[in-house]
Amino acid sequence: MKNKKKNMFVRFAGYYKPHKTLFIIDMICAFTISVFNLVYPYITKEIINNYVPNKLVTMMLGAAGFLLGFYIIKAGLNYFLHCWGHIVGVRIQSDMRRELFIHLQKLPFAYFDDNKTGVIMSRMTNDLFQVSELAHHGPEDVFLSLITLIGAFIMLATINVYLTLIVFAFIPFFVVYIIFIRKHMKKVYAETRVAQGEVNADIESAISGMRVSRAYTAGEHELQKFDVGNDRFVQSKYKQFKLLGKFHSTMTFFMDFLYFAVLLAGGLFFFYGKIGVGEFTAFVLYISTLITPIRTLVTIYDQIQEGATGFKRFCDIMDEPIEAENETALSPDSLIGNIEFDGVTFSYSDSDDSPKVIDNFSLKIPAGKTVALVGPSGGGKTTLCHLIPRFYEINSGKITVDGYDIRELSRFSLRKNIGIVQQDVFLFNGTVKENIAYGDFDATDDMIIKAAKRANIHDYIMSMPNGYDTEVGERGVKLSGGQKQRISIARAFLKNPPILILDEATSALDNATEMLIQSALEELQGGRTTLVVAHRLSTIKNADEIIVITSNGVEERGNHEQLIAQNGIYKELYDYQFKNL
Length: 581
Known about the structure:
Order of helices and strands: HHHHHHHHHHEEEHEEHEHHHHEHEEEHH
Structural class: alpha/beta
Number of strands: 10
Largest sheet: 6 strands, mixed
Shape: elongated
Mean pLDDT: 81
Number of helices: 19
Distance between the termini: 71 Å
Strand content: 5-15%
C-alpha cells in the first residue's frame, strides 16, 4: 500500500518535469513571501522595544520604509504566484488530458462497451480540473505553509522557548485528528466522483436521445432516471460536506484555542516579567503568522482530497491495458484481400461460462469476391465483421488475410486496408468535407469531390448553403439517414481499401433511398473483397456466395439460385420478405 502511494506521488511529480523552470520560480516566490511574512513581527518588536522608547525616529522611519518596500515586492510575487502558478497547473492539466485522450484511442473496444461515455468525459474534465488546482495550489501552498510554520517556530523560540513549547504542545492533537479523519474523507470523495460521473453519463445519454424521448413522450421517465442519479450525487455530497463541516469546525476551534493559549500563557509570562511588552506583541503577531499557514493547510486539505481522488481516477484509466501490439508485427504496404476464418471461437467476456457468440466458425472469402451473411439476429454476423479489423480478440482459432494471421499484422496496417460502411453512420461535428476526408486526410479537394460524386452525394452537397464547407451538426443531425449513409460511402471510396465490410448499410433506409445508395455500393464493391451483412435479401442476390448463419453456426451456403433450390432457411426468409410483392 505504501509503495502504491509512493508510486502515485512519483507519478504525479513527473508531470512537473516539462514545466520545472516555471515551477522552481514559483517555489522561490513562495519561499520569499514566507520570509517576508516573518519580518513584520520582528520589526514591530524592535519599534516597540527600541525605536519608540529611545525616540529613534530616523530608525523607525527607515524600518517603516523597509517594510513598505517588502510589501511592494510581495505584491509582485503574489501576482506571479496567482498568474503563472495557475498557468503551470493548466499546462499540467493539458498534458494529462492529451495523454488520456491518446490512451483512450488505444484502449480495446471492450473498455467502451463496459464504461459510459459520460463517466469518461467526467474524468477528462471535472477530475482533471481538480488535478490542475492541486498541481498549482498543492506544492505552492504546502511549501509556503511549512516554511512559515518552521520560520515562525524559530522566531518564537528566540523570543521565549518555554512559551513556544507550551503553544506548540497542542499541535500534535491537530495532526492526530487529521490522520483520523483522512481515511473517511478519502472514501467519501471517491463516492462523490463516481456519483458525479453517473450524473454526467445520464445527462449525455438524455441529450443524445432527446428526439427519441420526445417522440415517445418519455420526458417524465427520463426525469425519474435523472433524479435517481442526481439524488445519489446529493447524498454523496451531503456525506462529504458533513465530514468537511466537522473537520473545519474542529480546526477553527483549534486555531482559536491557540490564540487563547498564547494570550493566557503569554499574559502570565509578561505578568511575572519573563517577557517584555515588545516580545509579547511580537509573540502574538507570530502566532497570527503561524495560524495563517495552518488555516491554509486546512483549506487546501479539501483541495488535496479532490485532486488526489481525481488523479487516482485518471490513473485508473491510464493503467487500463491498451490493445496489445506484437513487437514484431508486420506492416505490409497493401493487402489483396484473401480472408479466411479457421475454427474461430469468440465470446465478449473472458469468463469460462460466458456464452460463445461464435463457435468454431470457418469460412474462406477469395480476393475480389462478395460474400453475404444472412440469417436471424443473434447469429454473430456483425461480430464477424468486428473481428476482421481486430476490434475484438478471438478466443481460439485464427483469422488470416493473404495468409497473414491478423494477430501478426500491426493494427494500423490491417485497418488501413479495410473500409467499413455501417447501418448507424457516425458523422463528426464538422463540415461535410472534413467527414469525407476521414477516408484519406491527405486527399485533395478534387479527390474528395470525386469520391462524393461516386457516392451520388455531390449534387446534394452543392445545393447546401456552404457546399462542402457546410456544418453537419453533432452526429450529422442536419442530414437525413440517406445523406449520412452516402457520405459514409464517399469516405470508403476515398479510402479505396482492398477489403470492404458492409454491415446493414441500407437496412434503415426507405426503398427509394436504398435503390439510390445500392448503385453506389455496387460500384464501391467492384474489385474488392466484400463482406456484406444484410437483412434485405434483395440487396445481396448478386453476391458470389451467401452464407446463412444462425446461433448454431453456418446452416447453408451457396449463391442465390442454389439456396433457393435447397428450399431451406434462405428460401423461407426470401419468400417471407417477398410474399406481398
